[in-house]
Specification:
Elements (H helix, E strand, L loop, with lengths): L2 H6 L5 H18 L2 H17 L3 H12 L9 H17 L2 H13 L2 H18 L1
Length: 127
């Protein structure tokens, strides 16, 4: 099942989607496939935002928005990222949002993967 269907359909289960995210992120990292890693991270920002994991989502947003590898977002991917940013700005204070973004921008690719896996674990524990 595509990840977007796993959490976007009325029957989607966030815990299942999160497990899929963790699996594919780690597999693509191991394969060195950074373009799909970054695309997946951008959709993970959306899922985490929807689940209320706003600090993790904003930190990952900072990382994906400043990523120098992989393809830049466009089309639906870019629109989803803009919507996530707007929701995060609504859910966090300006200072929290800026702090999370700054933290995310400072992470290297390995640290982004680590953060994503930890954020998935935290969100799954609450889902």
């Amino acid at each position: 099942m595509p990840l977007s269907l796993a959490y976007g359909s009325p029957h989607g289960d966030p815990a299942t989607a999160l497990r899929h995210y963790e699996r594919v992120i780690l597999e693509w990292q191991q394969a060195g496939a950074w373009t799909p890693v970054w695309v997946t991270m951008r959709t993970l920002v959306d899922l985490l935002t929807r689940l209320g994991a706003c600090h993790d989502a904003a930190t990952l947003y900072g990382a994906v928005a400043s990523a120098s590898s992989g393809a830049p977002p466009y089309g639906t991917d870019a629109e989803r990222l803009r919507q996530s940013e707007a929701l995060l700005r609504d859910q966090l204070t300006s200072a929290e949002f800026r702090s999370c973004i700054h933290t995310g921008e400072q992470l290297d690719s390995t640290q982004v993967i680590d953060l994503a896996v930890q954020a998935i674990g935290r969100a799954a524990a609450k889902a």
